[in-house]
Write a structure and sequence with these properties.
- The structure is a single chain.
- By secondary structure, the chain is of the alpha/beta class.
- About 40% of the residues lie in helices and about 15% in strands.
- A seven-stranded mixed sheet has the order 4-3-2-1-5-6-7, sandwiched between helices.
- Strand 5, helix 12 and strand 6 form a beta-alpha-beta unit.
- The radius of gyration is 23 Å and the shape is globular.
- About 5% of the residues have low confidence.
- Pathway: Amino-acid biosynthesis; L-serine biosynthesis; L-serine from 3-phospho-D-glycerate: step 3/3.
């Protein structure tokens, strides 16, 4: 056998080293804001298993559906759901045209900034605020109001626009899944029309892949222009058991992957992971980082995580410890 010269051997060794380093760098580039712990490993392993030809868990591209809750899963939700903050700001903006609100308790509390009292009436009070601020206009007018609010409103703690408080690790998951042939949907209790204003630019999720709560609408011709008018009446609530119903209605396939963070996502997680004997992935984002974001679960008004957390282990769901699993939370972090 002909001996390999020293220079050729060094070239060959160098090539092998470069290839090895390249493979390591490529692996590290996947979900870079996730620490190398169980959650990251499980997500990558699941994607590889379901997208590799010949794998027993291979899923055809048409069936690769991933669903994501929005509030508390893709962006923050404390100290108040962001759509709730929008509604309260709208009450203040509309108040000059409604002097009677100053003596009407629900609206008076909002105008004084006493949101706790305003929301003491529960879903009925919140529903009244939503319908008052979200109806009586065309869809185009509503979209313009939401877009303007996102440009000007700031989060009370971080002093940044609300749509900057998205989770960098989740943006990476969305991109990673789409790069591997998955179609990503938002399935949220928030308003579908509200989320569609920013979802494509913020998450890369187009409007037709956003499922949420809706109010009733009707068609009109106004000055020769066709418009959709928003009515002061609830159409559907996309939360809890409403989520799998919405998925079945608008997607028509059970998801392969589901990400949530609260008991409002419980049925969506169950529908994803328990509707088939095939390999499925359920993930819960657990808010454990009070320093960089917020720490809450069982006793929280927003994003209460109790029953779903208890069922996670027996259901095989991955629980993401935000404090320990994420090296970075927001895109603006250094």
């Amino acid at each position: 056998m002909q001996r390999i010269s020293g220079s050729l051997w060094r070239w060959w060794s160098g090539l092998l080293l470069c290839l090895t380093l390249s493979a390591v760098a490529q692996a590290d580039s996947v979900l870079p804001s996730w620490r190398d712990r169980t959650a990251r490993t499980a997500i990558i392993a699941f994607v590889q298993a379901t997208t590799t030809q010949g794998s027993p868990d291979f899923v055809p591209p048409a069936e690769r559906i991933a669903v994501f809750d929005n509030d508390g899963t893709l962006w923050s939700e404390q100290p108040l759901y962001f759509q709730g903050a929008f509604a309260f700001d709208r009450i203040k903006a509309m108040a000059p045209d409604h002097p009677e609100w100053a003596s009407k308790e629900l609206f008076a509390s909002v105008l004084k900034g006493d949101y706790k009292t305003a929301l003491a009436g529960g879903e009925k009070a919140l529903g009244q605020i939503i319908l008052t601020t979200h109806a009586g206009m065309t869809s185009d007018q509503f979209n313009a109001i939401v877009a303007d609010w996102l440009r000007t409103a700031k989060h009370p703690r971080f002093k940044r626009p609300y749509n900057e408080l998205v989770y960098q690790p989740m943006l990476e998951v969305l991109g990673y899944l789409r790069a591997n042939g998955y179609k990503t949907f938002i399935v949220s209790g928030g308003g579908a029309e509200f989320m569609r204003v920013f979802a494509e630019q913020t998450y890369g999720v187009p409007p037709e892949q956003v499922i949420g709560s809706t109010i009733k609408t009707h068609f009109e011709l106004r000055d020769g222009k066709a418009v959709i008018v928003r009515d002061p009446d609830i159409d559907s609530i996309d939360d809890g058991p409403g989520k799998p119903v919405g998925i079945a209605r608008y997607i028509g396939r059970a998801p392969i992957i589901a990400f949530g963070n609260s008991d409002g996502d419980l049925q969506m997680l169950q529908y994803t992971t328990q509707s088939s004997s095939k390999k499925r992935l359920g993930v819960i984002i657990h808010h454990t980082d009070a320093d960089r974001e917020f720490a809450y679960d069982r006793k929280s008004i927003n994003g209460k995580l109790d029953k779903a957390l208890d069922l996670a282990q027996s259901s095989g769901w991955i629980v993401v410890d935000m404090k320990n699993d994420w090296s970075r939370i927001y895109p603006f972090e250094q």
